[in-house]
Amino acid sequence: MADNITRVPGIKAGHFTDQNALTGCTVILTPPAGAVAGVDLRGGAPGTRELGLLGSDMMVERVHGIYLGGGSAWGLDAAGGVMDFLAEKNIGYRTGGGLVPIVPGAIIYDLEVGERAWPDRNMARRACENAEKGFQIEGSIGAGTGATVGKAAGPKMMMKAGCGSSAVSLPGGGVLGGIAIVNGLGEIRDPETGEIIAGIWDGEKFLKTRDMFLAAEEKASFGSNTMLGVIATDCFLTPAQATRVAKMAHDGLARTVYPAHTMSDGDIIFVLSTGEKKANINTLGMLAAEVMAESIVRGVKKAEKAGGIIAYGDISPGK
Fold it and tell me: Residue 173: which residues within 8 A CB-CB, separation 6 or more?
């Protein structure tokens, strides 16, 4: 049984990775009928599309996919490739003028890692094809290809991160899964121990982002970042409830990323509800935070060195 977001019935996840340019995109596909969706944005520098329609008072209540990409705002255009893929499969919101696939999305900033490049529509289409084939989910792949963390001391001390995913079973028989693209300004901490596992590495030890900000804020590098997450469940949620779960899931982000939700981050979490199973909203929100935290940790531990930027395995061999 998959220990990632695809464990949720009907949910598929796929990536396209450009290892030469060090960028890529990730696609989460829902069942053909779509999924109820919610979102919560906490960072001060977001890059997004179609977020307005995810309000609880909006007409369109279901989405057909979520697009996550690199390339900063340039990468948002690639989501059209997801729409093309879905339309060819007769999936979308029905209008008098034909089907319109609903695909909200968000991007990370990775333009200073590898080449100055971004995903295009063909890459997003291929990510959809890979989702249907069930390829690898975690690692320095997809939207996480150029992801990094620990940037307050500049690029020479930052570390590589990537994409992580996890899932849990619910008491009533349902499933909740998550996926995270780990690209934060701050360091990543183990939520159980508080230990820094990735961040500002000076070659021998971790430096604390907090200390850099307080001691010499004018010398700190804020960069451009953004943590992206998707939570999915086969339990029933209204759009308003899905948004509440997204808000609670941000607690998991804040437990692992320090500092979180800065003006240099575009931190955003989407929530998808695909089924009719019953679950307590408080339980779902609590577990969503835990799954998001675990996905972020895995996004660090599964990352690999790239572009001369070291990863977790380079400083913690064997772990």
Answer: 277
Q: Count up the domains in the chain and report the number.
A: 1
Number of alpha carbons in the 13 Å side-chain half-sphere of residue 151? 25
Render pLDDT for 145-192 as a digit per residue (tens, 0 to 9). Answer: 999 999 888 889 999 999 999 999 998 899 999 999 999 998 999 999
Q: What is the pLDDT confidence band of residue 59, given thresholds at 50, 70 and 90? A: confident
DSSP state of 99: E
Q: Is residue 317 part of a domain?
A: no
Cβ-contact 306, 110 below 8 angstroms: no
Q: Are strands 268-277 and 228-235 parallel, antiparallel or unpaired?
A: parallel
Tokens at 141, concatenated: 């792949």
Per 3-state DSSP, what percentage of the chain is helix, strand, and coil (rounded to 5)? 30, 30, 40
**pLDDT digit string, tens, across residues 181-236:** 999 998 999 999 999 999 999 999 999 998 888 876 555 666 678 899 999 999 99
- pTM attached to this predicted model: 0.96
Domain assignment present for 247: yes
DSSP codes joined into one string, 129-154: HHHHHT---SBS-GGGTT-EE--TT-
CATH code for the domain of 54: 3.60.70.12
Q: Which domain holds residue 122?
A: 5-312
**318 falls within a domain:** no
